Amino acid sequence: MTYAKLPGLTWDGTVYENEEMGTLEALLPTGGWPTAHAPAMVELPNGDLLCCWFAGTYEGSADVHIICSVLPHDGTKWLEPVNISGDPTRSEQNPSLFYGPDNAVWAMYTAQLDRVEGKDNMQFTAVVRCQKSTDGGKTWGDYTTVFPEEGTFCRQPIQVLSNGRWIFANWLCTDSAEGLSGDPTAFRISDDEGKTWRMVMMPGSNGHVHANVIELEPGHLVAFMRNREAYRIHRSESFDWGETWTVPAPTPLPNNNSSISAVKLQSGRIAIAYNPTCTPNPVPGKAAWPGLRCPVAVALSEDGGLTFPIIRWMERGEGYMGDENKTNNKQYEYPYLMQGRDGMLHLAYAARTRQGIKYVRFSEQDVLGAKRETVGLYNPTAAQSR
């Protein structure tokens, strides 16, 4: 396949080759909406790639809804997005995509009431809905409310464990001054392919959200979480298929109270996409919003997410560094990372301060940046201290 060379990246979905980075990149069509946020992707059996996100005037407003674009398997241009949702009374956010056993694409997302005077955040009214497509994302059926408990939020798609169990990470939002600091992580577990669900709480998880579940080996799970204190990505473990979890502990990776995305690669490594920034003085139990959500990095771990000796900035943005240059950088945030059946990595994130969604395709070797024999000489402790 031949791709045009950068420069030339425009909001029309055309995939270009970035010779300097060794990646393929595209800016997805915006659908005419002024803001875009929180993308998610899934690969279809025919090789098409779907990307969905929420679009509208402003996060939390009732005109915010879920839209979906398709990258046909020839891989040259993303198509104009189509609407998935459209409840005029609710702000529909944080979609995820899952290819179900019914051969349909499931779009799971939150739906919260519109903004009201005196309330900046209505997440405590959110429920989780599902809409399905049986034609590869071109059209979507009516929604069903899967989790009607108000305050339920989600981000990572349903994960299918090696024993067939489904696990779906949530966090529970409350209406209080400390609501965002208090959001605990909960997991929905299903042993009958989503027909029934039960909830498992993670202990000591207030302020730990956006859990990404990975199965290291049968029954042994890890979850990586965004931290409201804007300090570090946190990690929790389960040794019994998600029935019980350890109290979250910090990893070496910084977190700026923005979404992360973690996946187990075919090589066995764990890859995490994130913004490598944090607040220098976290206050325990208090949410912080440092603001800087740039650049976007991908980090690799070979020990189940305890250390990350290999890190590459996949999105450098405007390239400014330091607190005095914050206003010179646009925001590149809420990455979603997945691996295709052919081994290629697909990364999507809100770009240029939510003007739209950017897509990047690359290989694991592009992150490693050297022959494996050389990478093996790295000292993880030294690499983390740089």
Tell me about this structure:
It is a single chain. It is globular and about 50 Å long. 5% of the residues lie in helices and 42% in strands. Strand 5 and strand 6 (65-71) form a beta hairpin. It has one domain (12-366): Neuraminidase, CATH 2.120.10. By secondary structure, the protein is mainly β. The model is unreliable at 372-386 (pLDDT under 50). It has four helices and 27 strands.
What's this, in brief?
Residues 47-347 form the Sialidase domain. This protein has 386 residues and is mainly beta. The protein has helices spanning 179-182, 364-368, 372-375, 380-385, and strands at 4-5, 16-18, 23-27, 35-43, 49-56, 65-71, 82-83, 90-99, 105-113, 127-133, 144-147, 152-154, 159-160, 166-172, 185-190, 198-201, 208-217, 220-227, 232-238, 249-254, 261-264, 270-274, 296-301, 310-315, 333-339, 345-351, 356-362.
List the SSEs and their pairings:
Blueprint: E1 4-5, E2 16-18, E3 23-27, E4 35-43, E5 49-56, E6 65-71, E7 82-83, E8 90-99, E9 105-113, E10 127-133, E11 144-147, E12 152-154, E13 159-160, E14 166-172, H1 179-182, E15 185-190, E16 198-201, E17 208-217, E18 220-227, E19 232-238, E20 249-254, E21 261-264, E22 270-274, E23 296-301, E24 310-315, E25 333-339, E26 345-351, E27 356-362, H2 364-368, H3 372-375, H4 380-385
Parallel strand pairs: 1-2
Antiparallel strand pairs: 2-3, 3-27, 4-5, 5-6, 6-7, 8-9, 9-10, 10-11, 12-14, 13-14, 14-15, 15-16, 17-18, 18-19, 19-20, 21-22, 22-23, 23-24, 25-26, 26-27
